[in-house]
Design a protein that fits this description.
The chain has one domain. The longest helix is centred in the middle third of the chain and has 5 residues. About 5% of the residues lie in helices and about 50% in strands. It contains one helix and six strands; from the N terminus they run E-E-H-E-E-E-E.
């Protein structure tokens, strides 16, 4: 997935390719919250090779590399279901 053009703080549901470790120690593939996109060079201070080139941060707590983001659905409504984590 290429780097999405999101306004900082936009709300949405994110689906990841693999299980992501949550702040509470559990794992999930589905997240809901405030989304921010950062270039790898801004976060890491260098540009690694063979990577998507960006990171997605959800509610300032969960960091997902762009190469692991399967999809983003922009919505202000909290999804129903126990599978979706709201960090």
């Amino acid at each position: 997935m290429s780097e999405p053009k999101l306004k900082p703080g936009v709300m949405g549901v994110v689906t990841s390719n693999e299980w992501i470790l949550c702040p509470d120690g559990d794992t999930s593939k589905y997240f809901f919250g405030s989304l921010e996109v950062f270039a790898e060079s801004d976060l890491l201070g260098f540009v690694p090779t063979k990577d998507a080139g960006w990171y997605l941060i959800i509610n300032g707590k969960v960091l997902i590399p762009g190469c692991q983001v399967r999809g983003i659905y922009l919505t202000d409504q909290k999804p129903v279901g126990r599978q979706v984590v709201m960090p």
